[in-house]
What does this fold into?
Amino acid sequence: MKREEHVASEFLTKRFNRKPLYEPLGESTPPDFSIDGTAFEVRRLNQRYIYLDGSNEGLEEVDIPLNLALHKELSKIPFSDQGGTIFWGSKLKRPLTGEMRSIVNQLGAAAQEYYLECSRKPREITAGGVMLDLFAANAPTGKALRMGYTGDDDSGGMFGDIYPTSIRLALEEKITKTKEVANKFNRWALILVDEVLPGMMEPNDVGPLDLNLSHFNSVAIINPMNASLELEYPEGSLKDCEPGNLQDQSPGGL
It folds into this structure.
């Protein structure tokens, strides 16, 4: 199971006093869980970046591989007593204007040139929408370049702006993924494990939700820190998913 599936399983077990069945229709086939006639599909709730053509991606889909690649490239620079230790920070702005590997190579070459100058003055280097910030450590640590911070110019914003968009995009994705098996269950619930600002969101912080649920009956936002309910849409809809409230206790077509 993925981390978010473990969180969802814990939540469902506590909520319904029943351990949900994992992948009831088979491996890698939705839904992720079921309890009697209710299907539960699970997804991480992450902040999305929307491109001009309407496509979108999770911020971490660029952020994480970029910084891993930068860390690997900058770690190749050999330490010297003259150069000491330099901290580096990164900031990115989508869309990147170039292939990630090429951007990382350019930044790595420029960082090595800077290090060989043995300068102690801060410097900013940019390539392809990524800014590399270099600044000297107070004392050497035996490593030429060490990570100091990472930043993402597309992250952040107000709760009331981030959550409605992130929830809507996650729901639309899951509607498409599950539509061919929708009639195999009496009810569907989407369990979103909050990775936007886990543990910080309150229902009143989220702007108005006007979701097209399609065949889903409920959307629940879960705090991954303790597998507790943060938000439920429509309010009270999870109660209808309780086993005792189902008219047909067997999923159709199984």
Q: What stands out?
A: The first strand starts at residue 21 and ends at 22. The chain is about 25% helix and 25% strand. The chain has a mean pLDDT of 87.
